[in-house]
Amino acid sequence: MLSYSDSPSGTDPRARDLHRPGVLLLAGAAIAILLSGCAPESTDLTEVGGDYITGTGTITEIPRAERGAPIAFSGELDTGGTASSDDWLGSVVVVNFWYAACPPCRAEAPDLESLNQQFLPDGVVFIGVDVRDQAATAGAFSDTFGITYPSILDAGAGEVQLAFAGQIAPNAVPTTIVLDREGRVASRIIGQIPDRSVLETLIEDVIGEEG
């Protein structure tokens, strides 16, 4: 059984790696895209650019008793209006940091939407955080890949990224974070989701926690 080691700087030292039987961790490196290497914004989703750095993907779970404080965040949505983490307290929340010209973000988009649909009956909330684009580009991405959940537009002040930085430092895109019902970081995947079943299991673990 393969596992991913947790080594990025600035991350929570209490976190432990995920290497539990029944979770398939595929061989090979996931692609981590540093924010400094973002491509120029474009609504043409057939063109991809930027300086991409290949790194080892990291999957981490934080034991319930060792999680940090709830993370509060909010922002304008690509679909119009605003959203706030206060709206989702009591629900499991999956937060995906992405941008349109990021190849791994494009590759994992179908899995994210599939899991969004799967967990709708359980009340799980999926929310994207677009770290690079304006509404038109984000909307074009959603239309191309059939994404039905909204994204917060965080390209300006980066307030959502700052809200998470003290606990999980999402300095690579994509990064996917599962928040528990109290709004605390329960698990994360840095880099492209290596397999749909990995995120599925992380979500199921938090759903199964007793209140």
UniProtKB/TrEMBL annotation:
Q: Does the keyword Transmembrane apply?
A: yes
| PROSITE patterns named among the record's database cross-references | THIOREDOXIN_2
Sample GO molecular function, one term = isomerase activity
- Keywords in alphabetical order, please: Cytochrome c-type biogenesis, Disulfide bond, Isomerase, Redox-active center, Signal-anchor, Transmembrane
Annotated SUPFAM superfamilies: Thioredoxin-like
* Locations listed in the record: Cell envelope
Kindly list the biological process annotations in GO that this record carries.
Answer: cytochrome complex assembly
Give the main localization category.
other
The Thioredoxin domain extends over: 33-211
Indicate yes or no for the key word Disulfide bond.
yes
Bilayer-crossing residues are: none
Highest taxon of the lineage:
Bacteria
Protein's name in the database: Thiol-disulfide isomerase
List the source organism.
Pseudolysinimonas yzui
